[in-house]
Amino acid sequence: MPARLTVLSGPSGVGKGTIVAELRRTDPHIWVSVSCTTRAPRPGERDGVEYRFVDRATFDEMIADDALLEHAEFAGNCYGTPRSPVLKHLDAGTPTLLEIELEGARQVRRTMPEARFVFLAPPSTEELVARLAGRGTESPEAVAARLARAEIELAAASEFDHVVVNHDVAEAAREVAALIEAD
Ligand code: 5GP
Q: Which residues pair with 127 in a beta bridge?
């Protein structure tokens, strides 16, 4: 029987990456899709692990080939989910997780409405702003773009099937894992 797709979304800085890293450790049977992006790697990020890092021409080619399940522009860079690995894992019965931003989640909602949509929310807006500003890996312009986008994303929480508040990484990861596994 095909497994279900779960989409984890929420504003930049809310801790989606940390939750996904925790899930990879605690629930290795869940397959996490590797997105393509035109963003430059951050220190420590490895091609093919956190992302597949591609140039704009390659990204555009993937769009033209209809090779992406969804794609969106975020803070000046392109991000997209390669379609065939997702379908392959679902067909094989492997619970599959996408960690993507709001526009991409909305596209998946249209094309795969049977997926489960989970919104990761910060304990408070103040905490999110502090986290985004304090990350130290982005230029002031990029931080400003992410903050503006975060407000839009926060307002969309009610579009999702479930909201998980990231008070504590281990607890939030357990909640997300339970949603991925639940019938
Ligand atoms: P970051 O640059 O911080 O790694 O990611 C920026 C945003 O892009 C995050 O909200 C992340 O969830 C989102 N993102 C990562 N991969 C994808 C993808 O394949 N598609 C879409 N739509 N968003 C993505």
A: none
Helices 169-181 and 16-26: crossing angle, nearest 10°?
70
Task: For the full predicted model, state whether its pTM sits above 0.90.
Answer: yes
Kindly give the distance from the C-alpha atom of residue 76 to the centroid of ligand 1, in angstroms, as a whole number.
Answer: 12
Mutate to test the pocket of ligand 1, among 19, 79, 135 (most ligand atoms within 8 A of CB): 79
Q: Where are the alpha helices (DSSP H) in 11-139?
A: 16-26, 56-64, 83-91, 102-111, 125-133
Ligand 1 neighbour 72 (Cβ under 6 A):
yes
The pLDDT tens digits of the residues spanning 92-138 come to 999 999 999 999 999 999 999 999 999 999 999 888 888 888 777 77
Instruction: Give yes or no for residue 59 CB within 6 A of ligand 1.
Output: no
Verify whether ligand 1 is closer than 6 Å to residue 70 (CB atom): yes
